[in-house]
Amino acid sequence: MNIVYLGHSSFLLEFSNGTRIVTDPYDGIGYRMPRTRADFVTCSHFHFDHYYLEGVSGASRVISAPGSYGCGGVHIEGFAAFHDAVGGKKRGTNTVFVFEEGGLRVCHMGDIGEPPRPDLLKQIGRPDILLIPVGGTYTVDAKGAFEYIDAIRPSVSIAMHYCSAGCTLDIAPASAAFALAKERCVAYPSSRFDSADSGAYEGKVLFMERVCNG
Prior knowledge:
Blueprint: E1 2-7, E2 10-14, E3 20-23, E4 36-37, E5 40-42, E6 56-57, E7 61-63, E8 67-71, E9 74-82, E10 93-101, E11 104-108, H1 118-124, E12 129-133, H2 142-152, E13 156-160, H3 174-181, E14 185-188, E15 192-194, E16 205-208
Parallel strand pairs: 3-5, 4-6, 5-7, 11-12, 12-13, 13-16, 14-16
Antiparallel strand pairs: 1-2, 1-15, 2-3, 8-9, 9-10, 10-11
């Protein structure tokens, strides 16, 4: 499958069977989300920078709650989590989604704000690819992200929800993660990642180029 980074916490997941799923479409963060077509959309929560449905065309279904779903031959499991470290009292809830198709599992952590807890880790299992926020303020920071990565042990992690060029949110840039663990971080020179290349980046955290439309 291909993973295309649309910016912020939004990815286009192109599965081997042809199904296209967009995660957390966004607006109002300082740069525009590229117009994208997809069959389905998942939203981890209802904040403006994760639920901009107008940014996606062609979707027949929006999934925004915990549960088990079948979407175009892709199995999706949504798990309840919190957007903060105080049981949702500050920012509410968040849904972690795990996508599975053709033996490949991809986990999108949404705006996870709480530290790892055993029951959530058990539900997530060990996905091949982990999409994890690193910017702090509204989510876990780089240190918290590495706690999840070390607990889940995916083959490859892909960073999201950090301050890239043009972003106006109060979140940390990629340099914060590189300063913390430079040997584990990779500046990936493309907006598209092929899961077949995971072996070459075993144990690494990729900071992808985002699709840019001005």
